[in-house]
Sequence to fold (235 residues):
Amino acid sequence: MRISPILSAAALALLLAACDTKNPNGMPDQSPAQSSVQALPATAPKPDSAAARTANPVMPADTSVAGAWLLLEGALRGHDTEVLNQLIDPEFGLWILEQPGALPLVTRVAEVDAFRRTNQNLPLFSLDKQLMTGPQLQVLEQLPQADCDLQTKQNAGFAQSGCFAGPATAFRSLDLWPSATVKGGTAAQGKAAQGRTVRTVLQTRTGFRFHFAKSAGAGGRWRLIFIDLREPCTA
Fold:
């Protein structure tokens, strides 16, 4: 049987039309967007260690001490017993150092509200009227020593004026216990608390010093251990 040339041409046209419906990959009825797949890397890129250090900077060691000082200052000014009690170390307690006469007096404070200073029988919160006001706690590698020739009404005898933070080295080495009168605790307990102190905050207008220690264990908080209310140039 012979096939007409006209029929042969029509069959060829139909075959070509069917081939045009396939995509370049030979799969019919699939759009180019469906066949386009991006290959993922075998492993995720490593983070930039320098960028990570920038994003999570290590805070200076004194930042926490400054924060504890701000809490203490706010508690004293606001007469906030609750906040002040939270700053006191539960193991060593709070010790107040005064010098009402020739010999030092050290008192372990059991109740903040019940404590009275030897200065006119004033409460501890009376310190609010003697605190210096400053924009920021200044950190020093070594705290200045008092020089009574420099004493003025606004400075207890220091070459520098302000509210400073520094190491408690001088206070830890202070041997006051043989001559001190101790109330509310024992000399051994007070000496142990003294040995725990790490940082000191000094206010030069009065010469008052506030000594802090770090609680034991990882992530320990800064605690108020000693308040030294002795004025360095008082006769």
